[in-house]
Amino acid sequence: MVSKRRLPTSEDKESLTEDASKARKQPLSKKTKKSHGHNEVEENDSVFVKLLKTSGITLKTGESQNQLAVDQIIFQKKLFQTLRKHPSYPKVLEEFISGLESYIEDQDGFRNCLLSCEHLQDEEASMGTSYCKSLIKLLLGIDILQPAIIKILFEKLPEFLFKNVNSDGLNMPRLIINQLKWLDRVVDSKDLTTKIMQLISIAPVYLQHDFVTSLPEILGDSQHADVGKELSDLLTENTLLTLPILDVLSSLRLEPKLLTKIRQLVMGKLSSVMLDDLPMIIKFILHSITATDALEVISELRENLDLQHCILPSLLQASQSKLKNKGQTSSSRNQENSSQDCVILLFDVIKSAVRYEKIISEAWIKAIENTTSVSEHKILDLAMLFIIYSTNTQTKKYIERVLRNKIRSGCFQEQLLQSTFHIHYLVLKDVCPSILSLAQSLLHSLDQSIILFGSLLYKYAFNFFDTYCQQEVIGALVTHICSGNEAEVDTALDVLLELVVLNPSAMRLNAVFVKGILDYLDNMSPQQIRKLFYILSTLAFSTQHEASSHIQDDMHLVIRKQLSSTMFKYKLIGIIGAVTMAGIIAADRSGSSSLTPGRGDLSSEQCTQVTSLLQLVHSCSEQSPQASALYYDEFANLIQGRKLAPKVLEWAGQTISDDFQDAFVVDICVVPEGDYPFPVKALYGLEDDDSCDGIAINLLPLLFSQDFVKDEGRLTSQESDQKLVSPLCLAPYFRLLRLCVDRQHNGNLEEIDGLLDCPIFLTDLEPGERLESMSVKEHSFICSLIFLTLNWFREVVNAFCRQTLPEMKVKVLTRLKHIVELQQLLEKHLAVTPDYVPPLANFDLETSEVTPHTSTAVSAKIRIQGNLGRKRKADGSKISSPDPLSKEDNSGCDPAPSDRSQLEKEFRGKEEKTSVSLQNYHAFFRELDLEVFSILHCGLVAKFILDTEMHTEATEVVQLQPPELLFLLDDLAQKLENMLTPSVTRRCPFLKSKGNRNIGFSHLHQRSASEIAHSVVQLLSPMCNHLENIHNYFQCLTAKNHGVVDGPGIKGQEYHIMSSCYQRLLQILHGLFAWNGFFQPENMNLLYSALEVLSNRLKLGEPDQALEELLSQSFHYLQNFHLSVPSFQCALYLLRLLMIILEKSTAPTQNKGKLASLARQFLCRVWPSGEKEKSGIPNDQLQALLSIYLEHTDGVLKAIEEIAGVGVPELINSPKEASSSTFPTLTRHTFVIFFRVMMAELEKSVKGLQAGTATDSEQIHEEKLLYWNMAVRDFSILINLIKVFDSRPVLHVCLKYGCLFVEAFLKQCMPLLDFSFRKHREDVLSLLETFQLNTRLLHHLCGHSKIHQDTKLTKHVPLLKKTLELLVCRVKAMLILNNCREAFWLGNLKNRDLQGEEIISQNSQESTADESEDDTSSQVSKSKGTEDGEEDEASDGEKEQESDESDDDSD
Questions:
Q1: What is the rounded distance in angstroms from the CA atom of residue 675 to the CA atom of residue 1159?
Q2: What DSSP letter does each residue of 1073-1103 carry, written as one string?
Q3: More confident of the two residues 485 and 1093
Q4: Is residue 14 pLDDT above 60, yes or no?
Q5: Beta 760-762 vs 940-946: how paired, if at all?
Q6: Which residues of 987-1017 are buried (b: 16+ CB within 10 A; e: fewer)?
Q7: Which whole number is the average pLDDT over 1290-1294?
Q8: 1403-1441 burial, b if ≥16 CB within 10 A, otherwise e?
Q9: Which of 74, 260, 766, 945 pairs with 46 at a CA distance of 20 to 30 A?
Q10: Share of the chain above pLDDT 70, in %
Q11: CB-based contacts of 1217: which residues, under 8 Å, 6+ apart?
Q12: Whole-number Cα distances in Å, 348 to 338, 341, 479, 563, 894
């Protein structure tokens, strides 16, 4: 068959030019050689020569080219006509071919026939191109000659297969094959294919490669299928021809089945091929993909393609060779470069495929998304996501979503990302802008793990890429810092801080960009300002480079400018910047002299620079007490956090000690005299003797001087030489003094231990009868006095909490007791001073105007979690949006606005029940250090009382009492909540200052979350001791009261304090174990340590136990506390703590049942009632606990049936204020909570049930049908309860979840009924009959909603009616499918209200459907009825059904 070639003749030139280029000597043109060779014309009488000459070709001998006198097309036409018109045709063809065979027996003649002819015609006269084909190619273009010439060529070709290249550099086999390329027609393509494939089978390997790659240029389209099959067979036999065969197969039109077969064959070899062959193989695989098999192919390719093992061996070999012999590194480096080049080429192939083939990019993303196991993810996954992100803009959102999900699930971790950059940094460097764009997008997230991943992208991009990319990274980070978004600023500064430490030399090159941030300091928090100045100071002062001098100059300019400002906001920037810079200059480098040679201790010039800088800050801030206090705090943080040079410490210690004594310390025997509003007394001294040798803190006179001798808040200088000092600076200055002494003497505070027990000049703080008679100014003075005293004691406890002497421990515990007592006094005074603003205690604030939330004092008093009748201090931060439990407390216990005025009257009428919560004053208390909680280790501390002869006379035992324990636990719980709770769950409310959440946690934020978690793990053992002691307390109390809930002691203050301690301990444990940092590999050992502490409380286990064993023992230990839980909120915390332990286990089945059992016990337990609530259980807490029970129980349907079928009837039959006997937590007030949770869990359980298929086994069908029978029975029980409990919230729940249940029935149950009807007809009919009654009641509920015109209810009606209509049609379709159409009939269903009364006002009865089927009776007795709605309402059926989630709580 003759097949016409598709390519134009003009391409012949390109093909033959290629051929010519393969000649190893010179171009094929022999014009330059005419004088050196024979130039004779072939003269004989053969038909061959004559006909050629007649047609226009003159044959030459020797090395001369054959000459063509006419155009090529004209020659072919002349020769063809001459042959056809020859008298002896077709015999003349044989003579012509015979003459050709004779002529080409001479090698030179054959060569000339294969080489291009010389064109003798003028170029202007030529109609074609100036390039001439060879004689053989011209003859092959004549159809009547082609078969014979092809036969001659293939007979001649074997002579040259195993010969070396000719002396003239020509490869004869290639030259012969080239004659067959790009023929206009192939007369017998099948025969030609057979000959070529036979030739390939016997040719040498180097020629096989050429012959295979020539196939697409020789064969016609009709032969592609046959050649494809033969090549696929050859592929299995000869692996050396893999690349040329795949290259050819990519160019052939093959059947999909054959292509799939070849692809599978290649895919199987993928793991064993050479790295050099990978690009071509991957190219073939990607080009053979279709839309139907894309995901399958990409998934298999992703599993088999492991570049890590291809590249790493060369890298390892290179590194080993460098270690062995440095002189041999060139070869290994070449090998490494070759591997990298292959990988780059491979990724270029992949880039091209994903850029132009959307199905490939989407399939690759989907394959990565479908991978669930953490261990199955590879570095290729991340590299591919980055590449697709850079090449395909349409998939960016999709990739971001996949990345976020993978990061949240822990599949993409830091180690994987680091390996990706380490191995593929050359590939990723080309997509650096896209990686930075992705990092920017991730930093906008609210999830901390996603933000961390984005920051790692910046970090590794800087470390692995070139200078240009580093500059881009710094620019992007600076943009984040200047954006004003708090989370972005913090993350970007942390990344810069890490880069300064890891790669300081590269960071110095980009310092000018970082320096530009100094123009955007206004919107930064104090902590962010500290980080920025630390970064800049490190770049400016860590080395003596001249290039860093400009940074120093700019920093000095900014600091001096800010310090000279009169606005505190700017002065704060100057103080923080100056102290931070001084800390970098004054850093002690004696321990790191090897890193900085020649730099040991500070030079005198540097020391002068530091002292002058600090003195400048001191002089600029001394006129403002607030600025002075901030300076002292910042200096103290500097001493605490970094190791300063001894010279600076010595200068600071001497200066601070002298100034503190002059300002605040006086002799105790000299009682201040003056016109004070209250008598001055020395109070709270811890020494028993009354000697006059001691000292005292001069607090009241200083406060009086500030408050009463000033003009509208502006301090005036006294007439005496003594400088006026604000008492505001007392606590900050003491903290600075203490830390300085601590550093100088390695923790020994003997120099200042007199300040622990010295008294304070105060006045009687107990108000007594004077409370109502005092003026507002006097009240404010007393309140300020108490605040300052409290903050002094808090700093004293911070200072001496780590002292080991028993006497010191006793004094610290006594100071704790004083703090608790003073807080109780303070609440009394604050209750009658509503507009009072206390003196500040935390000074690194973004605004100087901080006011307590006194307007919400009453509601805040009620909302405090676990206060149960007593007031507690709230050190640190107010819980703005804590863990979910605290949030629930606030919403559940908040009184209605109408009740607040009455509550205020009650509180103001009763002195012991003040309306003030110290949580509203959290910004006005000094922060407790983490070291303070070492006091929790204290059990019993003995204080020895000596007689006059120095013998022990008695021993007084001082113990950490419950109020002091509660004080510490409160503060620790708030610290954990602020640091370990994910930022997403504690976001600030709208319009609330972003800094308020962190007020009072400044020192805490200078530590990492892992450091804080480590500190709390160290406290686990003493906290378990306290937990067990409180457990024993309640056990004994219960035994004493014989299990009576409201027995003696239940209403006492001690009971409530112990209950609050119990709750706080559980809250702390929950906050610790819920920390998401335990998922990070570096913190796994910390998790093991924490679990070992809990498990060892039961029994001392082996040192190296498995994680599962530790989790099981910890769960068992915590479970034992359920018997002594004193309050419902403690019970909920215990359950949540157990849930956290359960989530970390890989086999939680057994303990899951125990958790459900515990939850049921708590639901069935009688809890003490609160003072304000009708029930002692807040609604949201009850909802949470009931949800835990139903989510973890094995049989959720049985549990719902028990509550609805047993507990609710008991409630209905009980008196009005009584509860269910089985479930005492179920009352008429809490019924809506139970109802809502049961409906939600019922709908959730059936929605998760798979519909199944007809191919499932009969047993599976029966099990699912039984499950649906139970679910519909539960639904029926719940729905019918609205006849008794018809309150608006109950009806709302019924409408909302009733619609969702019917939808689930349509999607999950109806397909099951389709193929179960024939075998289980009675069961199906019973199910439909029960469900029909429920839907009829839902229809009545729709009518009820419309009659009452309740918008909250009626907005669910359209969608519900639409769903019920769909149910009618679906049941009818099911009956028709099972050939029971006659069982379906339509009837009229009247609109009725909940009581069953007909709605008369509606004239038109709405049509609905009833369907049934009975196999024996002639009339259908079992019917399925439903309803339809009015057309105008049905059209609204698309309304959102979840839009009223917030309305669910309106019970």
A1: 64
A2: HT-GGGGSGGGHHHHHHHHHHHHHHH----S
A3: 1093
A4: no
A5: unpaired
A6: ebeeeeeebbbbbbbbbbbeeebbebbbbbb
A7: 89
A8: eeebebbbbbbeeeeeebebbbbbbbbeeebeeebeeeb
A9: 74
A10: 77
A11: 1174, 1227, 1228
A12: 15, 10, 32, 57, 63
User: Which residues are within 8 A (CB) of 1106 and not within 5 positions of it... i.e. 6 or more apart?
Assistant: none
Mean pLDDT of 389-407: 89
Judge whether residue 1071 has pLDDT over 80: yes
Amino acid at 313: P
Q: Which residue has the tokens 């060139």?
A: 330
3-state SS class at 682: strand
Average pLDDT for 69-77: 91
Q: Distance between CA 29 and CA 32 in Å, rounded?
A: 8
Q: What is the pLDDT of residues 1234-1284, one digit of tens each?
A: 999 999 999 998 888 777 776 777 788 888 888 988 999 999 999 888 888
User: Which pLDDT score, from 0 to 100, does residue 672 have?
Assistant: 77
Bridge partners (DSSP) listed for residue 957: 942
Strands 67-68 and 57-58: antiparallel
Give per-residue pLDDT as tens, 559-572.
999 999 888 888 99
Ranges 471-485, 774-788, 1334-1348: which has the least confidence: 1334-1348
Q: How many CB atoms lie within 10 A of CB 1247?
A: 14
Cα 463 to Cα 456: distance, rounded to the nearest angstrom = 10
Copy the structure tokens of residue 522: 């206004």
Tell me the Ramachandran region of residue 1374: left when phi exceeds 0, alpha when psi lies from -120 to 50, beta otherwise: alpha
Q: Write the pLDDT tens digit of every residue in 1150-1209.
A: 788 889 999 999 999 888 765 444 456 888 899 999 999 999 888 889 999 999 989 999
Q: How many CB atoms lie within 10 A of CB 1033?
A: 19
- Mean pLDDT to the nearest integer, 387-405: 90
Distance between CA atoms of 418 and 593, rounded to whole angstroms? 31
Three-class SS of residue 1413?
A: coil
Distance (Å, whole) CA 878 – CA 970: 11
User: Which residue is it, tokens 């930064």?
Assistant: 524
Q: How far is CA 1131 from CA 177, 281, 1155, 1163, 1386, in A?
A: 88, 62, 12, 10, 53
What DSSP string describes 1376-1393? HHTT-GGGEEEEE---B-
For the cut 70, the answer to whether the pLDDT of residue 910 exceeds it is no
DSSP bridge pairs for 1384: 1411
| Sole residue written with tokens 């008196």 | 1215
H or E element at residue 662: helix 646-664
Rg (CA), the chain: 45
φ/ψ bin of 269: left (φ > 0), alpha (ψ from -120 to 50), beta (otherwise): alpha
CA distance 623 to 617: 11
Angle between helices 776-800 and 806-831 (to 10 degrees): 160
Mean residue pLDDT across the chain = 78
pTM of the model: 0.74
> What pLDDT is recorded for position 926?
92
Token representation of residue 950? 């120095």
**1336 token code pair:** 């009829």
Confidence of residue 853 (pLDDT cuts 50, 70, 90): low
Beta bridge partners of 760: 683, 697
pLDDT for res 1422: 36
Backbone angles phi, psi at 1251, to 5 degrees: -65, -30
